[in-house]
């Protein structure tokens, strides 16, 4: 019994001791947890990083072309290999007849340096031909029919025939341009003949230019020198006074600040539940102000092309034959914008800013040697020349055609049903863009056995037909504010031709150059003779020469055409259940923008050009603004036209029945058949 009682006592004591240890441990843990909680609370509260909207703008503008900045093909340095050892090296005697011929490469060493030195001649490669044919076309037909507002009407206006106006405008443009039907595509002989033909056309046009008052022609003779400067709609202006595209073309304008002042509620109010207090505070009585907004125009067509030809840069060019040089810019803006508006809109605000048409052309001639110190005989003349050869013609041609065709002839019948109605059937954008930079070889001298054909031609044309009419159905009336705009169109042509090279540095071909060309043509290894003593080569260690046995055809051609038909027909009516004359109206049928941008940078002989035959130089600038009208449309009553084209729908009419079964506008192919191929040829 005693032993058993002892065990029980032992058990109780052990249990007590265990419970005590647990209590102590819990107290220790609680103290540790309290310290942890205190330490966490004492930590510094780091706020969230602020979120800020940063409006970044980079309105960079490209500077004019600077010939010393782009790639010009650095001349190889001539390294004099001087022996620095303790013994003399005597090169073996080589019997040479003045030159060494290795295939298409010719080396001429008039003298060898004495013992202890030698000359390392550069290795040069002949250039390859460049022929780029680029045709970019965009065609869009966006002829919409819209009926909205509970008017219970169907609108079936007559077909819009913009093809008649387009044909008339294109014919007028063809009469202005003297080279509209000359093509520069084909064989080298065809291209050469085309350049000669264009020169003859320009010369004849200068003698008998267009007599139209809206056509500006500048074609100086040889005594007057080349065209230089910036011309805007026939007026010579300074660079600072020339209009900038970013000030007129919407797509290039800087983005406005995010924070704008608005007379109405924010856009978020449209998404606010009508039963919320925020909705009521935003709109007063919780009802949207009735209004109708219609935009059937604001289309944008853009062509952009930039060519940089630096394929065969050289200091001196020498040709045995003739030299034909042509620089031509032809810019034509043609439009027909006849609008008729219902007398019911006489109390509305007219937002009709006039159409704007700009023809901007720049001719620049950059002489890299101007202002620099000419090398002298004291600088030394070349000790050798290296010749590489091109057998036949060397062709450097880029033919770019960009064409945008768009029809946006919309028919709409609208009324106010007491809510906010917004309809947009235009706002289309079409852009063609191409940029070519051709960087090739550098030579000190190019000798040509045939002729030089150097032509830079830019043709830009914009055609816009925007004959709108806005008519009202019988009984239409408004007491709320209204505004309409049917014009505000922009036609923009911008072209620049930059010639890099000594202008008017044309001289007769010296005998030494002619003899070298004749020797090359006969298959002989020609010697340089007195060519190495030409002052143009002073300071050059070894002359790098390119010989072309045929012709040099350097032809750069850009043709850009925009065609936009935006003749809209709008019918205004009243809601057949509850009329809402208090509704605000905004109608826009114009605001279109068509633009062409083109630039050609042509790097020729930077020092001088020797011509064995005749030098023919023709430059011409033609800027025309052709405005046509539609007397038949302008003499009609828009309300009468609308009411004749209006029919009441039956009560059981379906949505399909509400759509008129007619062709609103001609298809692009229909218009193209009226002569567009002739213009683009």
Provide a descriptive summary of the structure in words.
The protein is an alpha/beta fold and 681 residues long. It has a domain at 132-238 and 288-369 and 379-509 and 535-680. It is 17% helix and 36% strand. It contains ten helices and 32 strands. Strands 1, 2, 7, 8, 10, 14, 15, 19, 23, 24, 25, 29 and 30 form a 13-stranded mixed sheet that branches. Strand 7 and strand 8 form a beta hairpin. The longest helix has 41 residues, at 2-42. The protein is flat and about 130 Å long. It starts with a helix and ends with a helix. Mean pLDDT is 79; it is low at 78-104, 110-118, 255-286 and 651-681.
Task: Looking at this protein, list some descriptive labels.
681 residues; alpha/beta; 10 helices
- Beta-strand percentage? 35-45%
Give the number of helices: 10
Low-pLDDT runs of 5+ residues are 78-104, 110-118, 255-286, 651-681
Secondary structure class reads alpha/beta
Dominant shape: flat
- Supply Rg: 40 Å
Q: Distance between the terminal alpha carbons, to the nearest Å? A: 130 Å
**Number of beta strands:** 32
